[in-house]
Design a protein that fits this description.
Beta Polymerase, domain 2; 5-stranded mixed β-sheet; 5-stranded parallel β-sheet; globular; binds zinc ion; 25 helices; binds 2'-deoxyguanosine-5'-triphosphate; Beta Polymerase, domain 3; alpha/beta; 581 residues; binds calcium ion; DNA polymerase, domain 1
Length: 581
């Protein structure tokens, strides 16, 4: 069985975690994480590349040593170096590390300082107040740990995977099913179709013509490790990534009803069913029925029409007001990928990106964009080789040169500047004012109190050159909780200072989340959907941002990078003109 890129990446990430527990060299840890990320970003599979005899050490961020490790993983399915470290580290530490607020570094410290190597021991130490005494921990961390342990008991089995990872699994599987003889339609419904940031399982629906062997094909797919159930119309399997997949085969006359039902959400379904009841209709996965007679169900539009509604996009189906909006004819006209004129956050080889300014710019132009902002890190992030004034100055001149050369495209001069402890920015105004825009973000001191963090960020917003607040909550899906901040106050301050809130489209960030996107719209704060691309391929992440924007009801008018170059330039100066007024 070929090894998927995600699996190689998982192994490198695990290795990085374990090295971090052991307190290994930061640069070494980072090398593995970067490699994991690069491999995930690759358009081709490393298995294929190796089979074709290509030299993996030529890939970005992969040297000889890593290339050897990848080859080992592809050949054996595992990495001996990782297995060795695993033997040294108590298994309980891995669990410890997954507790939100702990992470590998702190798990290592807990083990070394207090001998903690299980969740039980962690809970005991937290209750006894021993944890807050450790360096790098505080009272708040201790409290968070206790809360988190309390929650863990309740929802053990609900491991959710990121939408991007689910896609990597679902797309080839779906393509395979669609190729089956006799399969007319096949679609993934559920939270996946609603484009939720994480999904628990995949709910696949298919419509078949006579004598179709789709169940056979489904259960014998190469990634299936276990068949939990196999029937005429429904089967369930587990794939080797641990994700469950359900397949339901439905008659064509029921396809729309089934698609609607299994797309959910449950809350949306229940509300729709109630509307049906009021009209004397029964609505279920087989159709819309008056008495025994099926009166609709072939398409989703038919189902909605029976309860007097227009079609509602899957991303909106959370019973967050979409039904009322549909009734009143005020469903949002959602922003689309085609509306996007440019990308306002990207990195290059100057810091942690893998492509040059020029490569990034041409790739953006090829996507049909009018502009791309280059926003490399500032000097505080020394691990990424962040830019100081001098190097930023050089980049500005490089961009000026490229802009003269490029036709019909403009590179916007920017930076992603760190917000310092006191809310000032990591670079002086003198250089910031030479830029078209300034993305600013919190990368350290994530554990300030809610008030302190909010004040700190608002202070940064007041800098007249500050343009876009990047990844406003700092969360990493499944890995790091958002820092504590008063989002309503931030949105209000954004409006007052002319700052823009970013919807960071990296699949592990999606920050703003859906709820905050909706809040920004309601509060009148502008949003930039940005990829934060670290490579040419990552410009592609825009679609994840768009999906999240849909979940947050965003329309073209709410999103700044739907504007043309001329308009965006004015908008980006909004913060400055307010400061000068
Ligand atoms: P997930 O899997 O947790 O990411 O989220 P979903 O929404 O995919 O949930 P799942 O897989 O349990 O069920 C798929 C859809 O089936 C769900 O969105 C709505 C529908 N559904 C499931 N259970 C019920 C139910 O008890 N009542 C109704 N009306 N619909 C349900
Ligand atoms: Ca599901
Ligand atoms: Ca399901
Ligand atoms: Zn960035």
């Amino acid at each position: 069985m070929p090894v998927h890129n995600v699996e190689v990446a998982d192994i490198f990430n695990e290795l990085a975690d374990l090295l971090e527990i052991e307190g290994a060299n930061e640069f070494r840890i980072r090398a593995y994480r970067t490699a994991a990320r690069n491999i995930t970003d690759l358009p081709q599979s490393v298995s294929d590349l190796l089979e074709r005899g290509e030299d993996l050490s030529k890939l970005p961020g992969i040297g000889k040593d890593l290339a050897g490790k990848i080859a080992e993983i592809v050949q054996t399915g595992k990495l001996s170096h990782l297995e060795d470290i695993k033997k040294r580290i108590p298994a309980g530490l891995l669990e410890l590390m997954r507790v939100t607020g702990v992470g590998p570094k702190r798990a290592g410290a807990l083990y070394r300082e207090l001998g903690i190597e299980s969740l039980k021991a962690l809970e005991k130490a937290a209750r006894e107040g021993q944890i807050q005494k450790l360096r790098g921990f505080g009272k708040k961390t201790e409290q968070n740990i206790l809360e988190e342990l309390g929650r863990k008991g309740e929802q053990e089995e609900g491991k959710r995977i990121k939408l991007s990872a689910a896609e990597e699994i679902a797309r080839p599987f779906l393509a395979y099913l669609r190729k089956t003889k006799g399969v007319k339609y096949a679609e993934v419904a559920g939270s996946y179709r609603r484009r939720k940031e994480t999904v628990r399982d995949l709910d696949v629906l298919a419509v078949c013509q006579e004598d179709c062997d789709v169940m056979q094909r489904f259960t014998e797919y190469e990634d299936v490790v276990r068949v939990l159930a196999r029937g005429e119309t429904r089967s369930t399997v587990i794939l080797r990534y641990g994700i469950h997949v359900d397949l339901r085969v439905v008659p064509e006359v029921s396809y729309g009803a089934a698609l609607h039902y299994f797309t959910g959400s449950k809350a949306h379904n229940i509300a729709i069913r109630h509307m049906g009841v009021k009209r004397g209709l029964k609505i279920n996965e087989y159709g819309v029925f008056r008495g025994e007679k099926r009166i609709a169900g072939r398409t989703e539009e038919e189902v909605f029409a029976q309860v007097g509604l227009p079609y509602i996009e899957p991303e909106l189906r959370e019973n967050w007001g979409e039904i009322e909006a549909a009734q009143e004819g005020r469903l949002p006209k959602l922003v689309t990928l085609e509306d996007i004129h440019g990308d306002l956050h990207s990195h290059t080889t100057a810091t942690e990106g893998h492509a040059t300014v020029e490569e990034m710019a041409y790739a953006a132009q090829e996507r049909g964009y009018e502009y791309l902002a280059i926003t490399d890190h500032s000097k505080r992030l020394s691990m990424t080789h962040g830019l100081d004034e001098k190097r930023l100055g050089e980049q500005i001149r490089e961009v000026d040169r490229l802009n003269q050369k490029m036709e019909g495209f403009t590179i916007l001069k920017g930076v992603e500047v760190d917000i310092m402890d006191d809310g000032s920015l990591d670079l002086p105004d003198g250089i910031l004012k030479e830029l078209d825009m300034v993305v600013f973000s919190v990368h350290h001191k994530l554990n300030l109190s809610r008030d302190e963090q909010t004040e700190r960020i608002i202070k940064a917003m007041r800098n007249p050159y500050a343009t876009i607040l990047a990844h406003p909550t700092g969360r990493l899906i499944n890995e790091r909780e958002p820092y504590d901040v008063d989002m309503e106050r931030l949105m209000k301050a954004a409006r007052e200072t002319g700052c823009i809130m970013e919807l960071n489209a990296q699949p592990e960030r999606l920050d703003l989340n859906d709820v905050y996107c909706k809040m920004s719209k309601e509060m009148g704060a502008m949003v930039a959907i940005s990829t934060d691309a670290h490579s040419v391929n990552e410009l592609e992440f825009m679609r994840f941002g768009i999906a999240q924007a849909h979940r947050g009801w965003l329309e073209t008018s709410n999103v700044v990078n739907t504007r043309s170059l001329g308009e965006i330039k004015k908008l980006l100066r909004g913060s400055l003109s307010i400061a000068l007024a």
